[in-house]
Amino acid sequence: MSRRILIILGQPSSNSLCAALARTYADAARQSGAEVRLLELGKMAFDPILHNGYAHIQPLEPDLLDAQASITWAQHLVWVYPIWWGGLPALLKGFLDRIFLPGFAFKYRPNSALWDRLLTGRSAELLVTMDSPPWYYRWVQRQPGHRQMKQAILEFSGIRPVRVHSFGPVIKSSEATRAEWLQRASALGYRAGTR
């Protein structure tokens, strides 16, 4: 049976390094025999603002319902996005706010501070670009975006293991360096499809 992989492109532009990494990963995963779906948030129609928090139900747009169905379908989730101002792009954060809801991603237990992780049984990879050198983001800035995505969102919902792959610094990167990054994404995609 082939592995089911969902790739979520969290960079709004479909003409970006992130988009190239996502497509390269997808192509390699398909070549290895995986079944692959690609969601491009910049092409989806939805309100990224959770207007009332969890106080009132905000109906999900068709693209968000399809996204939830794809997450349910997937065995492995690949999130491809840039680090902007140390964290997630607003569109990606809004997407997560809207679909990682109680009853879908997690469920609090009655009269308890504990919760059930509703997305267990899935693994994830983060392919993250940044203008900072990855060592600087890790040791000086302490990786706030990586920690938020890995621990506070995905692992909180039961998705594990979560592997993080950083690509940077993008600013002033050479064509040769970008080609190496694309090769790395291809190798990761092929490996993911054979697991």
TrEMBL record:
InterPro entries per record: Flavodoxin_fold, Flavoprotein-like_sf, NAD(P)H_dehydrogenase_qn
Flavodoxin-like fold domain spans which residues? Answer: 4-186
Q: Which UniProt keywords apply?
A: Oxidoreductase
Extent of the signal sequence: none
- Asked if the keyword Oxidoreductase belongs to this entry, the reply reads yes
Q: Read off the SUPFAM superfamilies from this record.
A: Flavoproteins
Q: What are the protein's GO molecular function terms?
A: NAD(P)H dehydrogenase (quinone) activity
Its domain of life reads Bacteria
Question: GO cellular-component terms in the record?
Answer: cytosol
Give the protein family.
Answer: Belongs to the NAD(P)H dehydrogenase (quinone) family.
Q: Which named protein is this?
A: Putative NADPH-quinone reductase (Modulator of drug activity B)
